[in-house]
Amino acid sequence: MPRKIIPFTKPECQGIFCEASTCVLEEAAKDGVKTYIQRMQDRAIEPCLFGQGGTCCRNCSFGPCMMIEDVPESIGICGATPATVAARNFARMVAAGSAAHMDHGREAALTFLATARGEPPFEIKDVKKLHFMAELYKVKIEGRSKEDIAIELGEKVLAEFGQQEGALVMTNRASAKRQELWKKLGVIPRGVDREVVEIMHRTHMGTDQDYKNLIFQATRCALADGWGASMVATELQDIMFGTPVPLRAEVNLGALKEEYVNIVIHGHEPQMPEAMAIVSQEPAIVVAAQEVGAKGVNLVGVCCSGNEVLMRHGIPIAGSFTQQEIVLATGSVEAMVVDVQCVMQGLAEVAKCFHTELITTSPRAMIEGATHIEFDHHRALEIAREVTLRAIGKFKERQNVRIPDRKMDVVAGFSHETINHMLGGAFRASYRPLNDNIINGRIRGVGAVVGCDSCRAEAGRPNTTVVQELIANNVLVLVTGCVATSCGREGLLRPEAAELAGPGLREVCETVGMPPVLHMGSCVDNSRILIAATEIVREGGLGDDISQIPAAGCAPEWMSEKAIAIGQYFVASGVYVVFGRTFPTTGSKVVTDFLFREIEEIYGGRWALASDPVEMAQLMIQAIDKKREALGIQEKKERVLFDMAMRREL
């Protein structure tokens, strides 16, 4: 039975589900500081229904053409139907979202290659993973130094971005059955960049005008993201910066410190944050901070850059996507250092209200009114020191500081390798205990809750409501991105949160000593979830493909194009995926029916939509139960005390 949960605010209500944030916002508003809350109130305009539903076409100068399906005259001037337009717009969202991860992956590969060639400041930390990746890419290991192996690996990985034919190596990590299906359908990505270019060509005016064919290419592009660039980025970053292991840290605005120079890192690429983490603790930097009256430098994160350094260094996260302006509104931030993705342009105006310097570091992402100090991995520490010293110089300009006394302990850093080790130890690292507990019914299944927090909801509440409903029904939850931050604020990323879980999941969590909600990293680290799901299949007993295991995914508060790309590569991998509040094809029943129903017959996964978070969780539970029934494990098995003969047979 679903657990009774306080209903969340209606979707049209704007706000934020966080006492600390509300406190800061109220005080900042009195001083005339405008954040997204005021901007939404000032607009007082609902989203365009044509644009929201995907049936507005502006791909040529005849338009924009806004369409209503089932109205014969409601087609484009060129004759394009609402289905064609919705599919085009969906595909373009997939292309943009994938491109964001692909650029991230390329930057990771370039940094990795420079590191392999001995350029500071990074190093090859995880040799075991280096060797694993080398074997995947058919790089010889025996008798070679880690640097030589890494150079050849880096060159091969980088070549895949411009590859025109063949298949991406990482797709070989999928189950044999899934690979066969992709080959049969022709959706195995041929190269990383090629698939984005082809979508942009196909969606150009007068090119591909068959909605199913457009979705076909969107799928191939999404797979180039999830089983290509994102997976490559995660693995190479682990090799350079260390594969995450569980550690305790803190989340929320209370992570800011009044007596320290506060520097916020925000964005998605971890190279600059890693350099900042090294520099911020250097003796000379600490002395420089003390000379201006501070005790030292306090580095905190926002968004996925925060998740990267949280799970590798225990550096606290001050806020999620919707909290980024609120972090500045505390008046305690000397510098916010940003790179790419999910960075609000409004930060520049909020920073002007305080002494804060907003610093952009990527040539791909500049903001008018910000200081631009371009990051170069060849000079990483030098640039990090320059930025840090600029922040220290701002400390004496502080005026009103309002840091709420609100923060929460979290346990983060559950990589696939960590889960494997945690369940079986050094000598028997295995997913067997997880599979066994799914089979015997203590754990009902696995739910991935990922994505952003949204300005269009009471930010954070839908995320945490879904998660609480799932764990109360014995579903082990995996989280990434800003969902992880939302869950952290509410105390769901601690072993103590097992008290909120159903009896079966609680028993497993208490035995292993883990939270019922596992923090698996940043948005790009959704590839870790793909690998974990594949490992469950490989362990046996739960089918021979991801589409058969009792698992489902959702993004309750999604907002970016990346979320659409992520969702599509999970659907193409065989997963049931639910999105919250809105979906970009609802203006076309034809395309929506295809993505929500027909596509399951092709890939074994499909999309769904739910506005209410409890309903979303229940849809996921129903999908999980359906998989359990198909596997014949729906009925919970009685516990049996094995004698020695039975153990030998096992």
Can you tell me about this structure?
The two termini are 35 Å apart. The protein is 48% helix and 11% strand. The protein has 650 residues and is an alpha/beta fold. It has 25 helices and 18 strands. The chain has 3 domains: 74-241, Substrate Binding Domain Of Dnak, Chain:A, Domain 2 (Up-down Bundle); 253-397, Rossmann fold; 414-631, Rossmann fold, CATH 3.40.50.2030. Strands 7-6-5-8-9-10 form a 6-stranded parallel beta sheet.
CATH architecture of the largest domain: 3-Layer(aba) Sandwich
Number of domains: 3
CA-CA gap between termini: 35 Å
Helix content: 40-55%
Number of helices: 25
**Uncertain spans:** 1-14
Roughly what is the average pLDDT, rounded to an integer? 92
How many β-strand runs? 18
Broad CATH class of the largest domain: Alpha Beta
- What is the gyration radius calculated from CA atoms? 24 Å
Oligomeric state of this protein? single chain
Which class best fits the helix and strand makeup? alpha/beta
Q: Return the CATH topology of the largest domain.
A: Rossmann fold
Largest sheet: spatial strand order: 7-6-5-8-9-10
Provide the β-strand percentage band: 5-15%
Shape: globular
The major pleated sheet works out as:
6 strands, parallel
List keywords for this structure.
single chain, 650 residues, alpha/beta, Rossmann fold, six-stranded parallel sheet, 25 helices, disordered N terminus
